[in-house]
Amino acid sequence: MSDKHPAKWGLTPQEMATLPTVFSPDLLSGQRFLVTGGSQGMGKAMVFLLARLGAKVMICGRTEEKLARTKSEVKELLGADISYRAMSIRDTDQVDALLDATFEEFGGLDTLVNNAGGQFPQDAIDFTRKGWAAVIDLNLNGTWWMMQGAAQRWRDRGEGGHIVSNVAHVERGMPQAAHTCAARAGVIYLTRTVATEWAPLGIRVNCVAPGAIATEGLSQYPPEATRRLGNVNPMRRMGSGWDVAEGVVYLSAPSGNFITGEILTIDGGMRMWGTVWPAGVPEHFQV
Ligand SMILES: CCCCCCCCCCC/C=C/C(=O)SCCNC(=O)CCNC(=O)[C@H](O)C(C)(C)COP(=O)(O)OP(=O)(O)OC[C@H]1O[C@@H](n2cnc3c(N)ncnc32)[C@H](O)[C@@H]1OP(=O)(O)O
Ligand SMILES: NC(=O)C1=CN([C@@H]2O[C@H](COP(=O)(O)OP(=O)(O)OC[C@H]3O[C@@H](n4cnc5c(N)ncnc54)[C@H](OP(=O)(O)O)[C@@H]3O)[C@@H](O)[C@H]2O)C=CC1
């Protein structure tokens, strides 16, 4: 997929309704999930897979129209009912309201999936304070409000739970995306820390760390930012939202019962070879 910029990124609802999965159809029967950013991209793939496996699902995002469309597509293609709430994870009052509504509607929560996030490509030296703050607030603070809010409710109810946060492959840093690299590293180390603090509460805490994944979110980036994404790992192709969704289910289902503080990298090997350079390869690094 080198040098290509498709007219439309990501999986269609029909694909998400029919793609093969390694998991059995009743695996998550009765399990209650909350997926932030479930209205498109990887989050939407998770929602389709979770619904196919029998889970009850609540999704959120800022745009009501996208949430309502996802709900009706899941109903039409899978015959399943999901719930949604329009909100921003950056707003602590809205986070509390979402968590309260979810616990009330489902009578509890089994797994929180922190998937909402994003950034813009820019050299770190040029970040404005407002741009830096926006990316940290969304990806680090917003994710943390969700993690802490869910854990407090589980503790107060005397129940356990599981958190899985969608971060990014950041082991080698991320040139031209240092703000999101810093935020994702923050989430990774929060995860590794509270996995210990919250183990006595019966709460497992994990992350998935994707490399370049073809999703609708990429349509917000110009072709010069995305045309190299199929060439940034040894497999020399992009992953799909389904690859990440299956990783989330692996960690959340009984297959993950003895896994906490883990970062499951789903990147086609990008941690070993390949650099994104989302704003273009600087002359110094061209070969
Ligand atoms: C191409 C990938 C780049 C990252 C590299 C990651 C490498 C890993 C794999 C590669 C692919 C990863 C892809 C994705 O994650 S795609 C899915 C996620 N979706 C998005 O990223 C959506 C796009 N981003 C945003 O919506 C916003 O940037 C953001 C949410 C981060 C900010 O939202 P907010 O609405 O609060 O902020 P504003 O838009 O009002 O902007 C606030 C200030 O931020 C600065 N800014 C914003 N955009 C840019 C830009 N394009 N370039 C430079 N600066 C920017 C700016 O200071 C804004 O303030 P002003 O508007 O007042 O100037
Ligand atoms: N695509 C890729 O290659 C990679 C992506 N990632 C990360 O994985 C996650 C999912 O990515 P992807 O599926 O591509 O993203 P998309 O941009 O396709 O989807 C993002 C989702 O998050 C929601 N969202 C964004 N901001 C907020 C907010 N403040 N509050 C609540 N919901 C919000 C969006 O809905 P709405 O706009 O309506 O709010 C949308 O549903 C993101 O954190 C992304 O940065 C990491 C590595 C690689």
TrEMBL record:
Pathway: Lipid metabolism
Keyword terms of this UniProt record: Fatty acid biosynthesis, Fatty acid metabolism, Lipid biosynthesis, Lipid metabolism, NADP, Oxidoreductase, Peroxisome, Phosphoprotein
Bilayer-spanning residue ranges: none
Signal peptide span: none
Pfam families named in the record: adh_short_C2
EC number of this enzyme: 1.3.1.38
Cell location: Peroxisome
Catalysed reactions listed for this entry: (2E)-tetradecenoyl-CoA + NADPH + H(+) = tetradecanoyl-CoA + NADP(+); a (2E)-enoyl-CoA + NADPH + H(+) = a 2,3-saturated acyl-CoA + NADP(+); (2E)-dodecenoyl-CoA + NADPH + H(+) = dodecanoyl-CoA + NADP(+); (2E)-decenoyl-CoA + NADPH + H(+) = decanoyl-CoA + NADP(+)
InterPro entries, A to Z: NAD(P)-bd_dom_sf, Peroxisomal_t2-enoyl-CoA_red, SDR_fam
Assembly and oligomerization: Interacts with PEX5, probably required to target it into peroxisomes.
Function statement: Participates in chain elongation of fatty acids. Catalyzes the reduction of trans-2-enoyl-CoAs of varying chain lengths from 6:1 to 16:1, having maximum activity with 10:1 CoA. Has no 2,4-dienoyl-CoA reductase activity.
Name of the protein described by the UniProt record: Peroxisomal trans-2-enoyl-CoA reductase
Organism for this UniProt entry: Hoeflea poritis
